[in-house]
Amino acid sequence: MLRNEPRSEDATSLPPWERVLWKKQPYADNYIGPHFFRVTKKQRAVSSIEAFTGCRVVTHQIFWCLLVVSAFHGLSGGALLPWQLMAATAAHAAFTFCRSRPGWTAVQMAVMCVCLCGCLCGGVVQSLTASISTDTIYACTTLLLVLHIVLHHYGHDIALVNETLSHNVGVFACVCLASRLTDYWAVFSFTVAGIAVFARPDREDNRHGCIESTAAAVAETLLLFSVTAVAVWVYVPVLLPLLLFSTALSNVVLPALFLRLQHHRQNIYGPWDEARID
């Protein structure tokens, strides 16, 4: 940015430069006063607590995806019964209701719609991918769950975020997995659980005014990690290394790397978008 200083002999006679628009001043158009950058801030430092607790929403989505995969393997292997999955889904829905308090009418409509869709679509889902190989379904489901994590809204409006598409691909991943189940009630319970997980109103960030304390955020993350670890260990232990690696990566490695490299940022926050019009 160019800066034309006034001549020294005229500096004392000129009025002070003001940061305003469309006002005739005895300065060049590209002149910037010496006090302009005093109110700017080149970077907003992120504390260690903010860095390590801010990544919890990403970790939660990873846990939910692994829980869905664990539930599928439990149902397909017979280790998890449909009524057990429905009970866990009801407990999760009750916790979400107590947390968000959307209103009793909204809860009744949501439960009725989910149960009706599950009952009507159960038979269709069973034969939806009959002509597609199981390996293809698993690969497609993996890509859909990764896409859900990438597109999910974590509290910042960026071009990559698409909350609607993120919810849709998550539900479709559950539908693809449910099509590989043979029992009708297993399909119904898994479909309802997938809708409860991926199509629920997201209140894990501050976009809706839900500001949690650090202790509550850490406690919720530890609880969800414990449930996920137990489910993975019981139903699909082959994914336990993936759980540990993703947890360490998103909660330790990436926040520490961000804290180490954040001083290299050159973002300038200043008053140029706040000029007064005289």
Automatic annotation (TrEMBL):
**Could you mention a single GO BP entry for this protein?**
GPI anchor biosynthetic process
Q: Does the keyword Transmembrane helix apply?
A: yes
Its name, as the record gives it, is Phosphatidylinositol N-acetylglucosaminyltransferase subunit C isoform X1
Q: Which InterPro entries match?
A: Plno_GlcNAc_GPI2
Q: Which superkingdom is the protein from?
A: Eukaryota
Organism, scientific name: Hyalella azteca (Amphipod)
**MF terms (GO), sorted A to Z:** glycosyltransferase activity
Q: How does it sit in the membrane?
A: Multi-pass membrane protein
Identify the pathway.
Answer: Glycolipid biosynthesis; glycosylphosphatidylinositol-anchor biosynthesis
Cited Pfam families:
GPI2
- Keywords associated with the record: Glycosyltransferase, GPI-anchor biosynthesis, Membrane, Transferase, Transmembrane, Transmembrane helix
Family assignment from sequence similarity? Belongs to the PIGC family.
Q: How is this protein annotated for GO cellular component?
A: glycosylphosphatidylinositol-N-acetylglucosaminyltransferase (GPI-GnT) complex
